[in-house]
Amino acid sequence: MNPTSDNRIDRKFRELKARGQKAFVAYITAGDPSPETTPDLVWALERAGADIVELGVPFSDPLADGVVNQLSAQRALEAGTTTPRVLEILKAVREQSQIPIVLYTYFNLVYAYGIERFCLHAYQAGADGLLVLDLPPEESQGNDVGSRLGDGSLRRISLVAPTSPAERVAKIVQKATGFVYYVSREGVTGMQEHVAASIGSRIDLLRKHTTLPICVGFGISTPEQARTVAQQADGAVVGSVLVNRIAEWGREKDLPQKLEAFARPLAQAIHS
């Protein structure tokens, strides 16, 4: 590891910018429907056109997640998915893919594992970034997961809420590396019928405080919504609708093929 290591997230955004395209960031829960299936699902999403995959580390009390992702975490835990098992899944993904991967997790899991140990093992397993949902900047002094590796090899993805005032936005994005994740609406994750009208003005505010790519998530569930978001942001994060399909098709042998076919129109809409 060295401070100038070329992170896959940074490289992907450079490639997309050179092509004039936006990022399709796909979220799934590691271990749902089973730990053995997850690598196949990541590879399927990559074939469909996903640029970055957020891999949720299942947690028993996922406060930021709506019912779809809560049930997904529950299924993963019941299938035996522990934090060490997620890192084994990540290693398996890396046997066939170099797609950028962000571990989407809660601080309790990182703390219980050991902060420095978690960061080191995540990096060694092939993670490119961490998104710790419940670690605000005020609480990250002395336990900043994004820099505990010392050389910044893992990118720290920061969440910005639609209710954050400008001075707080500046404080949050100051800690961010990789990209900024703008939460498009109040509340938890989940599919929505409409994209928030305030996205454009909030992205303008974010751009005053950071040069990092800005990706928008929470509630994007159709190609039309994904296209609308991609026209304004640097990427669109799609999660619950993919997780819902995994719940629906989880017992079927052709789950990866079905997920690939479902995700492809989302990728095409974002890239167009």
Explain this structure.
- With 272 residues, this protein is of the alpha/beta class.
- It has a single domain, classed as Aldolase class I (TIM Barrel, Alpha-Beta Barrel).
- 44% of the residues lie in helices and 14% in strands.
- It contains eleven helices and nine strands.
- It is globular.
Helix content: 40-55%
- The CATH topology name reads TIM Barrel
Query: What is the global morphology?
Result: globular
Please identify the structural class as seen in this structure.
Answer: alpha/beta
The main sheet orders its strands as 5-4-3-2-1-9-8-7-6
Topology:
Blueprint: H1 8-19, E1 23-29, H2 38-48, E2 52-56, H3 67-78, H4 83-94, E3 101-105, H5 107-113, H6 115-125, E4 129-132, E5 155-156, E6 158-160, H7 166-174, E7 180-183, H8 199-207, E8 214-217, H9 223-232, E9 235-238, H10 240-249, H11 255-271
Parallel strand pairs: 1-2, 1-9, 2-3, 3-4, 4-5, 6-7, 7-8, 8-9
Helix pairs in contact: 2-4, 2-11, 4-6, 5-6, 9-11, 10-11
